[in-house]
Amino acid sequence: MFKRLLGLGVGALSALTAACDGAPMTQSVYIKPQGVMSYLQYATTEGPMLMRVHGNPFVTSQGFLDQIVAHELESTITYIRGVRLTTDPAQAFRPEYRVIVVLGADKALHVENVCAGEEPRLDPTAAPSRMVTMFCRKDELLSEVRGSIGVSALPEDEGFRRWLREIGRPLLLPG
After folding, report:
1. Is residue 101 a contact partner of residue 69, using CB atoms and an 8 Å limit?
2. pTM assigned to the model
3. Which of 33, 57, 89, 114 has a 20 to 30 A CA-CA distance from 137?
4. pLDDT tens digits, residue range 132-147?
5. Using a CB cutoff of 8 Å and minimum separation of 24, what contacts does 64-72 make?
6. Rounded mean pLDDT, 88-101
7. Phi–psi pair at 109, nearest 5 degrees
């Protein structure tokens, strides 16, 4: 718990610095000590893993945004061949494992509650836009990464895509 609080404090300081120029900021907040990569491998052995994207601060369709987020997060997973993410629970091999992405997250978002199934609170007016990503198994948090990016970014922008990859690495490939 102390590590998590310390991580949040460091993240807040980094966020203030990055917020001044709208530059993308990423901070790994929590990683379960026992093998996040093993959970990921188990969740994706015979099919795609469930992904949920909450919030859409862009003028684009949710389907298009989901595709971009899935593609960039999948591209960070290089040690397991053919990992795919899906937003369709019926297609997910083990739907109790999921990646949750919250764009425009409220400052007071509690990831444990979101892992447990609660709809995340959003604050689409925040500048820069906050993103909280988590890897969950049932209601258990396996890893959490937070970040922010200037609200002028678009899903098509290479900067936004790079930022998603920066978030995906510590979320799914800690160590």
Report:
1. yes
2. 0.85
3. 57
4. 999 999 999 999 999 9
5. 64/155, 65/103, 65/155, 68/155, 68/156, 68/160, 68/161, 68/164, 69/101, 69/164, 72/161, 72/164, 72/165, 72/168
6. 96
7. -65, 130
Q: And the tokens for 6?
A: 């310390």
The tens digit of pLDDT for each residue in 151-165 reads 666 888 898 899 999
Task: Give per-residue burial for 34-55: e unless 16+ CB within 10 Å, then b.
Answer: eebeebbeebbeeebbbbbbbb
Distance in angstroms (rounded) separating the CA atoms of residues 114 and 111: 5
> Do the beta carbons of residue 168 and residue 146 sit within 8 Å?
no
Distance linking the first and last C-alpha atoms of the chain: 19
Q: What is the DSSP letter of 122?
A: B
Tokens of 154: 């678009």
Residue 174 tokens read as 């800690």
3-state secondary structure of 51: strand
Neighbours of 65 (CB within 10 A): 18
145 Cβ contact partners less than 8 Å away, ≥ 6 residues apart: 26, 27, 28, 29, 132, 133, 134, 167, 170, 171
State how far the alpha carbon of 37 is from the alpha carbons of 13, 48, 80, 126, 130, in Å. 29, 15, 9, 33, 25
Confidence of residue 114 (pLDDT cuts 50, 70, 90): very high
Q: Angle 17-19-24 (CA atoms, 0-180°, nearest 5)?
A: 95
